[in-house]
Amino acid sequence: xxxxxxxxxxxxxxxxxxxxxxxxxxxxxxxxxxxxxxxxxxxxxxxxxxxxxxxxxxxxxxxxxxxxxxxxxxxxxxxxxxxxxxxxxxxxxxxxxxxxxxxxxxxxxxxxxxxxxxxxxxxxxxxxxxxxxxxxxxxxxxxxxxxxxxxxxxxxxxxxxxxxxxxxxxxxxxxxxxxxxxxxxxxxxxxxxxxxxxxxxxxxxxxxxxxxxxxxxxxxxxxxxxxxxxxxxxxxxxxxxxxxxxxxxxxxxxxxxxxxxxxxxxxxxxxxxxxxxxxxxxxxxxxxxxxxxxxxxxxxxxxxxxxxxxxxxxxxxxxxxxxxxxxxxxxxxxxxxxxxxxxxxxxxxxxxxxxxxxxxxxxxxxxxxxxxxxxxxxxxxxxxxxxxxxxxxxxxxxxxxxxxxxxxxxxxxxxxxxxxxxxxxxxxxxxxxxxxxxxxxxxxxxxxxxxxxxxxxxxxxxxxxxxxxxxxxxxxxxxxxxxxxxxxxxxxxxxxxxxxxxxxxxxxxxxxxxxxxxxxxxxxxxxxxxx
Length: 531
Ligand SMILES: Nc1ncnc2c1ncn2[C@@H]1O[C@H](COP(=O)(O)OP(=O)(O)OP(=O)(O)O)[C@@H](O)[C@H]1O
Ligand SMILES: [Mg+2]
Description:
With 531 residues, the chain is of the alpha/beta class. It contains 16 helices and 18 strands. A 6-stranded mixed β-sheet has the order 1-3-2-4-5-6, sandwiched between helices. Helix 2 packs parallel to helix 3 (69-78), helix 10 (265-299) packs across helix 16 and helix 13 crosses helix 14. Adenosine-5'-triphosphate binds at residues 419, 423-424, 427, 455, 457-461, 468, 473-476, 479-484, 508.
């Protein structure tokens, strides 16, 4: 006899008794109480119904022919589908042993016959509610667990849960993949022994210094990069890890650590390659700058020859004068000394020119130094004026009183200033003008010095904004178009900025900035350009 009596509602209750009269009374007692009632009159049916309908509560008679209530209960508890139902025994047996046996078999409660209707109603209500809540809780737990394991499985970082001694109590699939172990083999192993103790340098493997040791033992969170970890096959890899202490209870007792780690071998390799590429670029930039300095010197060769020739001619003349003095009857020693002094001064002048050229052509550039702006500009002016083609109008320098020393490579800064001054002189000459080129230095903010080179020459071409700093852009017959691009690359290497302005009264103004030596160390490039 199987019967579904009332509409499916809050909970399902299965009534099991071999006596139809008893079943009727139970049914009458529980109907209209909001349950879905199922009825079975023997053990076999009870098991089948329970398996199929998953009732919250089973009211189970003990004394039944063929299969008694104990056996039914035993089988219900053995079947995972029915194991969580609350079995409430119903029996005339009212001795303690029977109750104990009932509980021992997994029964939840016991009602003695003849029963009170109110008691049955109250107990069924309580058990139905408890089982329902328990099932909801379990469902929620299962969901959380599967969410959690889905997340842990999907994460590409390795995750270990460690106890306070460093034994692995949890490992996600990525941890197994990274370390080359089977996930099952990891649990129970010791994290330190597994991944570190055989480290090739035994001096480094003092336990306190091991990664994650302090997290496990003192609750100190750790984050390290480039740690060497051992794989299952004995090979090693560079790892980055974060270890967080695992605290439990209100008093925050230390229970071990959670370690999140990943293999950064490829990342380190990329970084190294990037560093190498950067170095190469730097090297090539320096070489290009050097080549460009040599080319400038080539262009200035005639001027240099002239510049050296002047003192040499003077020396020859003074030497002749001196010889003549010595041939005279009375030797004017004072005059001779004065003449020799002039020879010395002229030879000094010649060697100054050569010193400047040698310094300018030196390779590689000297590196950053603390520089005095007035000295540097003066040196550059003398250098530029050597270029005979261009020294008609001359060069005027003004340096504001508050301009401090800057931190930059002297040769490279001189190269920039010289390029700009030569362009300005060339523009002036092309315009047939004789106005001097003005070079000025002022403070810009607290951390930068701004150097301007202003001319009254032919002015900038129309498409200057787009083209001026492009390599090989030139409007000159014998120009190469590498002066300005080179200036930009050199100024940027100093942490500075370069640009130009058109002059309302004609001519051009170029400027560049340099960081002051005692400044904040911030670059002088406007934020929008600093990429
Ligand atoms: N002060 C200036 N006034 C007018 N035009 C200028 C000035 N400075 C540069 N230019 C323009 O910018 C172009 C590029 O200058 P850049 O110094 O890069 O090359 P270049 O002077 O032509 O050749 P080089 O490589 O020998 O210096 C010049 O050809 C010129 O047209
Ligand atoms: Mg130029």
